[in-house]
Amino acid sequence: MALSPAAKASDFSEPWKNADRALVIDAYEYNSIDWAQLATDKRIVAFINKASDGMPPPYFCSGGDTEVKLCKTLWKRHAVTRELFQTRRVVAKALGMKWGAYHLARPGNPVEQANNFLDFADPAPDDLMALDIEGIDPTQWMSLDDAEEFVRQVHRRIGRFPVLYTNGKTAQYIADNRYKYRLLSRLPLWYARYKPDIEVHFPMGNWQGYALWQFSAQANCGRFRCPYRVAGTPNDIDVNVVPTNAAALRQQWPFGGLLDVPSDYLASVPVPLSREAALTGKATIIYADVATPPTVEEIVAVLGSRWSKFRDGFRMPVVKTVPPRPGFGIVQYVAWKRAGQRSPAQLDAAFAAADPLSTASTELDRSQR
């Protein structure tokens, strides 16, 4: 799936200053929104809202008074959050905006979290789905291995893949280990980095550009200075830019596919140039693809198969079906093996047809006689 051409250099340096670039808002339940004011900014094309957070709280509460009060408070918050989510979706779509939802990934069963996310968001075919991975510490956030399983479960249920939201450090780790995380490294990237220029920081790997760049948030937007202010929203609202205009974004939304794997310069070799072409200075170096390096699992499987064949080569065959007959020597054994029969009558016929002069032992007996 080719989402768009690789981002231009200008899309890595304050692209929100380009009036042609579309913007996307993402919010959670505690962000206040004045929808009438928000609608005045015609660059806002889409709205992504937080859906689920790990697993839902237990419906039935038990324990002491404190535990029961906490349980009821969490469940009430969960119910209010879901109601707000559904209300915002209706309003955003009524204003002509594209809609999306994200899941904050926590440690725990990734399949159950994926099911919770889809049940909460109830996505329409044109709603964007996103997985939020905040870090690589599996004690604080969903592990990357579990995240791969989360992605598979989303695809099993709705037939498309989510977008991956993550920060620069985590994105770089996934890019560096893209042969291990073959799904995460090919999801459209929703990149969180609060710098005016990210070209030197961008992780690359399978990502030649970002699908969305979260460039403004509470981390770099305050009362006196902010990269971009959206009418009708507080300073802590998250604002994202895309490397396309509004029409192109609407066409690509909700993404949902895997990125094509680009030619890997570490797994390719340059095609030789002729001396004449090189001297002209107008030649372009072309790289020939080389097979992708095997994964650890593939290496282990191959070595295991070869070891089995090597080990079996030293094993003596065990004959368990030789019939217990008197006078059953090498001649009879050879005849029996050649005949490939099992009944006594067929064995007798095979023995009678055997030529005793065809073996070295009978030739030796004949010379002695």
Give structural attributes:
11 helices, 10 strands, two-stranded antiparallel ribbon, TIM Barrel, 3 domains, alpha/beta, 369 residues, extended, eight-stranded mixed β-barrel, disordered C terminus, disordered N terminus
Structural features, described:
The protein is an alpha/beta fold. It is 35% helix and 14% strand. It contains 11 helices and 10 strands. An 8-stranded mixed beta barrel has the order 1-2-3-4-5-6-7-8, surrounded by 5 helices. A two-stranded antiparallel ribbon has the order 9-10. α2 (65-94) links the parallel β2 and β3. The longest helix has 30 residues, at 65-94. The chain starts with 22 loop residues before the first strand and ends with a helix.
Short description:
The chain is of the alpha/beta class. It has helices at 35-38, 65-94, 110-121, 144-158, 168-176, 246-252, 275-280, 296-312, 330-339, 344-353, 360-368, and strands at residues 23-27, 44-53, 98-104, 128-133, 163-167, 189-192, 212-216, 238-241, 268-270, 287-289. The chain is extended, with a radius of gyration of 34 Å.
What's the helix and strand layout?
Layout: E1 23-27, H1 35-38, E2 44-53, H2 65-94, E3 98-104, H3 110-121, E4 128-133, H4 144-158, E5 163-167, H5 168-176, E6 189-192, E7 212-216, E8 238-241, H6 246-252, E9 268-270, H7 275-280, E10 287-289, H8 296-312, H9 330-339, H10 344-353, H11 360-368
Helix pairs in contact: 3-4, 9-10
